Amino acid sequence: MTDDVTVRPIGLVVGGRVAVEDDDWGRERAVIRLDGAQYTAEALRGLDAFSHLEVVFHFHKVAPEKIETTARRPRGNPDWPEVGIFAQRGKNRPNRIGISRCRLIALDGLDLHVAGLDAVDGTPVLDLKPWMAEFGPLEPTVQPAWATELMQEYY
Question: Which domains does the chain have, with CATH numbers?
Answer without folding.
Answer: 11-151 (2.40.30.70)
